[in-house]
Amino acid sequence: MPVSSNTISFNGREYKLSEFLPEVITLADELAKNAQLKADSPLPADTDFSESEQREVQRQIRAILILPPEAISIFWGAFAAHHLTDVALSLRRLSHATQRHAVSTAIQILSLLPDPKEQPYFRKFLRNAAAAKGIPTIVARAFVDGTSWKRPSGPGHHCALIIHMLFWCDPSLGDDGKASVDADVRATLVPALESVLESTRGSDIEQLQIVEMERLKGILGAIDAMPGAHYLDSTRGYLEGQLDICDGNMCDEDAELSCSKCKTTRYCGKECQSWHWKHGHKVRCFKTDY
């Protein structure tokens, strides 16, 4: 695994990552609060975000994304570890018909999370069937029903999120066992993708957004073309096989130990575990409730 620095450069100065840790945890908590994702302060039923509430969430997202890359990485780790269950509870509770902006905001935040291959807490959440139950179908249905995409997110980010959920979530979460997204939603997702792709022709949408939409369309075709959950089972098996090596310093040994606190990192032995703790994991280690 690559070496992670214990310092970051910001505004021409060097800071220890540990100095940023309380700040990014606070930022993660504030984003969850402002997006009204926390279980103790949910958005009232049939009440959607106001314009000012939407602007505040978008302002905070933009502020987070200009932080140094290492700080952003720690931020998303803290958010994923502490608030993904809040996001899931919110999405299960919200009504797309009457709370479209709130649903769109929750999905936007999820879509900005790093790839689960790189973000271990996001990966851990998706692999937990109880924690992720129903979420892939809700997220996919929101694309079909129409989402208020706001930069820096967009339809391609939404599609990438659905792909992550297809690849990492248990296919048994879906009603036909072929994929974590229910069959009827998958069927309506394809024409919805075609419609959005058609509407983007000649627009200034980023090419990567189009690529992700086309990619999801192809994956959905492969899922339905193969028997059972063969396509997704084999894909997930390949991805998980890449995680079986040690997270220590440039170590490619098979991993047999895991961090007892976060359970997201793995090691071949105590020496590599100790090295990793001192070289970055200490500020990225969070306990989760999933």
From TrEMBL:
Task: Spell out the InterPro entries in the cross-references.
Answer: Znf_MYND
> One Pfam family, short name please?
zf-MYND
* Domain MYND-type, residue spans: 248-285
Gene3D superfamilies from the entry? 6.10.140.2220
Molecular function (GO) terms for this protein are: zinc ion binding
Keywords, alphabetical: Metal-binding, Zinc, Zinc-finger
Protein name, entry field: MYND-type domain-containing protein
